[in-house]
Amino acid sequence: MHHHKILPLIRDLGQRTQELLSQEFEFMGLGPGQIRVLTAVLATPGINQNSLARATNLNKSTISRAVTILSRAGYVEIRSLTGNKKSLSILPTNLAKSLIPQMSSITEDTESVIIKSLGPKEAQNFGQNLKTISVNLDSLIKQRRNQLATEPNSPTERT
To answer: Is the domain of 131 the same as that of 68?
Structure first.
């Protein structure tokens, strides 16, 4: 059986998908990371920045920049629901909510293009395989992070 080099394929798939989505969402004046953040805010109104970082797998500084850009563009509001400045909630504006059908359509159309040459079972398997790869990567990332936390002065040993 011929084995493809999988990392270049994954990287290429991600880059091409981001390029396509950037073109599709250009009308909003936002980049892929900002779209990812906005999508998470629309899915979980009132989310805080820490939860947003976990939900999007983006670091906190990227989240902070994205939220600032989204706020300035009129897509989100930042509120302190508890009066505590450390506990800020990010809420979608009516403008952002009005774009949900168009954003959903773009996402669905993009997914259709990606899997158009696959049959229903192949598409299902492809999705499941991507989920499995994602879980495996998350596990490895956590493992490496824990190794670095317990042994900060030694190089991470590869297994």
So the answer is: no
Q: Is residue 59 part of a domain?
A: yes
Domain assignment present for 6: yes
**109 in any annotated domain:** no
On whether the pTM is more than 0.85, the answer is no
106 and 25 in contact (C-beta within 8 Å)?
A: yes
pLDDT by residue, tens only, the chain of 159 residues: 456 688 888 889 889 888 888 898 889 988 888 999 999 999 999 999 999 999 998 999 999 999 999 999 999 999 886 666 667 899 999 999 999 999 999 989 888 888 888 888 998 998 899 899 989 988 998 898 888 888 766 555 554
Q: In 3D, which of 111, 109, 116 has the Cα closest to residue 130?
A: 111
Please, what is the Cα angle at 82 between 76 and 86, to 5 degrees? 70
How is residue 7 written in tokens?
Answer: 């990392």
Residue 90 within a domain:
yes
Residues near 48 by Cβ (< 8 Å), separated by ≥ 6?
87, 88, 89, 90
